[in-house]
Structures are given as C-alpha cells and as structure tokens.
Write a structure and sequence with these properties.
single chain; alpha/beta; Rossmann fold; six-stranded parallel beta sheet; 9 helices; 6 strands; 13% strand; HAD_2; HAD family phosphatase; PGP-like_dom2; phosphoglycolate phosphatase activity
Length: 213
C-alpha cells in the first residue's frame, strides 16, 4: 500500500480554473488583448512567471512589465475561494488518515495562499507537508517540488501517489518517480497521457490505494 498521497491544489483540492481564467481575461482586456483557448489550456497549472514567459518570452521587457502589473492586479482583485472546494476532498482526507497514510500538498501557488485556502475550508490539519512552487527556481513540470515533498515526508517516490490534473503537474510527479492519478479536468481538454491512471472522482483514490497492497 502507498504510504502517502500528495495532492495538487488547483483543479484537485479546489476547482479554481474558471476563476483564474476570468481573472486573466479581465487583466489582458485592459491591454486590448485576448488569450486563445489553446493558450489558456497551456496556462493551466502554471505560475505567473511561466505564464508571462510563455506569452511574451520573445520580448523580455514586455514580459517583465506585464508580470509586475499582473502581480499588482492580483492584490487589488483577490480571489474568493469560498465556494470552490472539491466536493469529495474532505471525505477522502478522512479515509486516508484512517489508513494512517501521510498527506502532502505540492502546488505552484504561493505558500501564503495555500495555507489560507486550507484553513478557509478547515482541512489544513490533515496535511503533513505543504510545498509551494515559489520555493524552487523551477516550478512544475520540473520535478523539484515533488522530490522535496517526498523527502519531507521521509519516504521514497515509490511510497507516494500524486493526484494531479494538469499536464505540467503530471510531468512533474512522473519525473520525480511517483505514480500519478489524473483527476477529470472538469471540461478542459488536457493531455493526461503521462498519468499512471485517469480517475473520474477523488473518491476513486481510496479503492485504488486499497487495491495496491
């Protein structure tokens, strides 16, 4: 049996991508720009640095200026995470703890935001390790965040199962040597082909673990 489950935040613990896309659309509308559906799919699971490098990598000055403006914009228009908790996550966390399975979080989001979201939904006490992509020179799809989280849990990659939804997240976990369950991407056409297995619901995690003994 796996000894730990490491969750991503966005698209897994919270269903937040529609909020992020709406915020991106509002921001870029100020400049008379729109982000194509194809590009939006590439941005799922990325942090602001990766996002602006993808959009303006051929113009470093514009990339830097737009990123700075976006960071200010984020502070002026904070996200409301009240109603985006995945419906099954609390029950799954309870079942994992009953089985004495450690629980980690590996997300590209800022550490302060991660703690705020977990506390908002009163699930922070379930997590043994919380890792933020801002702590590493390279975020997902680089494996560093998963390698770090596994070490902090005191385990090996083979002991751990990752729960992801995005292409970047799946690549990060698989590169670190973890099995990965890819949760249904809730209407987004995301390449999840690198995952060990695809699941329709977070509730599918428990029987998968029970069968992996």
């Amino acid at each position: 049996m796996k000894k730990a489950v490491i969750f991503d935040m966005d698209g897994v613990i919270i269903l937040s991508e529609t909020l992020y896309q709406a915020r991106r659309d509002t921001f870029f509308k100020q400049y008379g720009e729109t982000i194509s559906e194809e590009t939006n799919l590439k941005l799922i699971g990325s942090n602001p640095s990766d996002m602006f490098h993808l959009l303006y990598g051929d113009d470093p000055i514009k990339e830097s200026v737009r990123k700075a403006a976006f960071m200010t914009f984020k502070k002026e228009y904070p996200m409301d995470y009240t109603h985006v908790l995945s419906p099954d996550i609390t029950d799954v966390l309870v079942e994992l703890k009953k089985r004495e399975i450690k629980i980690g979080l590996a997300s590209a989001g800022p550490l302060k935001n991660l703690h705020q979201i977990l506390k908002l939904h009163q699930i922070d006490h379930y997590f043994d390790v919380i890792s933020s992509g801002e702590s590493f020179p390279k975020s997902k799809p680089h494996p560093a965040i998963y390698e770090h989280t596994v070490r902090k849990l005191g385990l090996t990659p083979n002991d751990c199962l990752a729960i992801e939804d995005s292409t970047h997240g799946i690549a990060s976990a698989t590169s670190a040597g973890l099995d990965v369950l890819a949760i249904n991407a809730h209407g987004y056409s995301i390449d999840q082909s690198q995952a060990t297995e695809k699941i329709k619901s977070l509730r599918d995690i428990i029987p998968w673990i029970d069968c992996s003994i």
